[in-house]
Amino acid sequence: MSRSSRFHVTDRHTPRLTPLPADEWDDRSRRAIASLIPAERANPTGAGNILSTLVRHPDLTRAYLPFNTYLLNGSTLSPRVREVALLRSVHRRNCEYLWAHHLPIARRAGLSDVEIDGISDGQLADDADQSVLAAVDDLVDTGTISTPTWDRLGRHFTDDQRMDLVFTIGGYCLLAMAVNAFGIQDEEL
């Protein structure tokens, strides 16, 4: 399935917010992203379009990024499970930008191209993976996880992991909505 056919975008537009130009970056901008990237990448090229756009509001960025950093690097979920949840979440939120940027991360976490296609189709062979997809779909569709899905998750994950899963799904749905609402463009465009 081609990448563009995975997403139904209803409002293609030019960026509503553009990345902060290099000549406007200051110490406050660089401090705002310090929890996620090293100082040498604290510039528009090294930070990429998401972070370079978020630093337009450094106080919000400085508050948000430690949480996102935890989801990405400190959670009790394995990188593979995180990427299953994350990819399904950004797929359900029609965020092509995050989908494309997480494909290499998902592959490094051990997901095959067949499994990645299964994430977008909502069908994975492994029961633990399928329970993660069901949790994403439940949360996106109803704002909660059904009892059968919660119990199914409990066969594979601890309570801490299920809590991290809920916050991972919510965190990446939030980021996907921000990327879409701000009109953040892929760096290659």
Automatic annotation (TrEMBL):
Keyword hit for Transmembrane helix: yes
InterPro entries registered for this protein in UniProt: AhpD-like, CMD-like
One Pfam family from the record: CMD
Keywords tagged on the record: Membrane, Transmembrane, Transmembrane helix
Carboxymuconolactone decarboxylase-like domain span: 58-136
Annotated region described as Disordered, given as residue ranges: 1-22
Residues that span the membrane, as ranges: 165-184
Transport in keyword set: no
Protein name: Carboxymuconolactone decarboxylase
Native source species: Mycobacterium triplex
Lineage: Bacteria, Bacillati, Actinomycetota, Actinomycetes, Mycobacteriales
